[in-house]
Amino acid sequence: MTKITPQPGIMEIALYQGGAAHVEGVANVVKLSSNENPFGPSPAAIAAVRDSAAGLHRYPSTDHSGLRRAIGEVTGLDPERIICGVGSDEIISFLCQAYAGPGDEVLYTEHGFSMYRISALAVGATPVVVPEQDRVVDVDAILAAANPNTRLVFIANPANPTGTMIGAAEVARLAAGLPEETLLVLDGAYAEYVEGFDAGAALVGTRDNVFMTRTFSKIYGLGGLRVGWGYGPQEIIDVLNRVRGPFNLSNTALAAAEAAIRDQDYVEKCRAENARWRAWLAEALAECGVASDTSCANFILARFSDAAEADACDEHLKSQGLIVRKVAGYGLPQALRITIGDEDSCRRVAAAVRAFKGAAA
Ligand code: PMP
Q: pLDDT band at residue 360, thresholds of 50, 70 and 90?
């Protein structure tokens, strides 16, 4: 038995489950479990990946100025107030490393994204889980739970795995009502799926206790390259850059992300296609008695009558080559999270759920 012991809190972190892309003995498998873009990245990003090969012997940019400039040009945000990370996961982790430690509280809501808890425990902070209201972030519950020991509040808007979101006025009310010592982090991983949504960027621009995170893993289709970014008050960006490793992003990742964000026509097409098939799938599921909340993201949280039915449907989908996500770990054992794939995948999911419900009836 080793005498080398981890820091307190580390063993409370559950090992990450998921990510499988194969089902033993089943052909034509489609992975709908990680909210990836079924169309992949923009062709411009793929070309940038190829071009980056010529410079692989060189260390990458340490300040990510090219990517930050591109983000600034496309979004209108100040590149000086942007930081890039290995997925938005890394930005979440930087925030916890820099602002939370033993005795501090990191707050998120009942069905909040798993990295908030992982990053809080990794730095010895105390994760605090606040109830939601019917799977929607409850601003009053957060305000009631926050106190001067609350260093960080994370909310994803739209949220994963529920797909629900709260409006700008509610977000502003939350920012205004938190203790002065608390940073509100608005996780905009799915923001691009909401037409015309700024993910709270305007609020970050006017307040010094609000921070926004974004990712290239979802609508930009670059999950495999791991690029995310954050936008916040200048002092906070300065702090986070001190914990960031100097070469955290590769040449290839930087080049691909820069090309991807400049191709907004492609983003628009993906957003429209997602909206179309999300509505179609929600209706198809409803027709066979499977309810879902209105999703603002690229997945649907399908609710079954109980955990046993959700598990049985998951098994049936798997047998048909459809890998979806069980979300019992998020406190939703009766639900399955289904990524919106392309038309063919959505039709396959609907047919499989219909057959499952028909067989069960
Ligand atoms: N936030 C939310 C709400 C997410 O669902 C995800 C990915 N599942 C992330 C952040 C992290 O994404 P990435 O690290 O790939 O940017």
A: low
Which residues, in sequence order, are bridge partners of residue 335?
Answer: 303
> From atom 13 of ligand 1, which residue's Cα is the shortest distance away?
87
CATH of domain 43-263: 3.40.640.10
Tell which one of 118, 186, 187 to mutate to probe ligand 1, the residue whose CB is within 8 A of the most ligand atoms.
187
Per-residue pLDDT at 40: 98
User: Ligand 1 centroid to 96 CA: how many Å?
Assistant: 15
Q: How many Cα atoms occupy the beta-carbon half-sphere of 61 within 13 Å?
A: 17
Question: What does the domain layout of the chain look like in residue ranges?
Answer: 10-40+265-360, 43-263
Looking at the predicted structure, is the pLDDT value of residue 259 above 70?
A: yes
**Is residue 339 in contact with ligand 1, taking CB distance under 6 Å?**
no
User: What mean pLDDT comes out for the span 276-304?
Assistant: 97
Distance between alpha carbon 281 and the CA centroid of its chain, in Å? 21
Please answer whether residues 130 and 141 qualify as being in contact, where contact means their C-beta atoms are separated by less than 8 angstroms.
Answer: yes
Distance from C-alpha of 281 to C-alpha of 1, rounded to nearest angstrom: 52
| 0.95 exceeded by pTM | yes
User: Atom 6, ligand 1: which residue's CA is nearest?
Assistant: 189
Quick one: which of 240, 184, 234 has its CA closest to 212? 184
**Is residue 262 pLDDT above 90, yes or no?**
yes
Range list of H helices, the chain: 43-52, 65-75, 87-99, 114-122, 139-145, 168-177, 201-206, 234-243, 251-262, 264-287, 307-319, 343-360
Percent share of the chain, pLDDT over 90: 96
Q: Is the pLDDT of residue 359 over 80?
A: no
Q: How far is CA 223 from the centre of its chain?
A: 11
Contact 171, 200 (CB under 8 A): yes
Q: How far is the CA of 131 from the centre of ligand 1 (A)?
A: 21
Per residue in 297-318, pLDDT tens?
999 999 999 999 999 999 999 9
Q: Which fold has domain 10-40+265-360?
A: Aspartate Aminotransferase, domain 1 (3.90.1150)
- Angle in degrees, 0-180, between the axes of helices 264-287 and 343-360, rounded to the nearest 10: 10
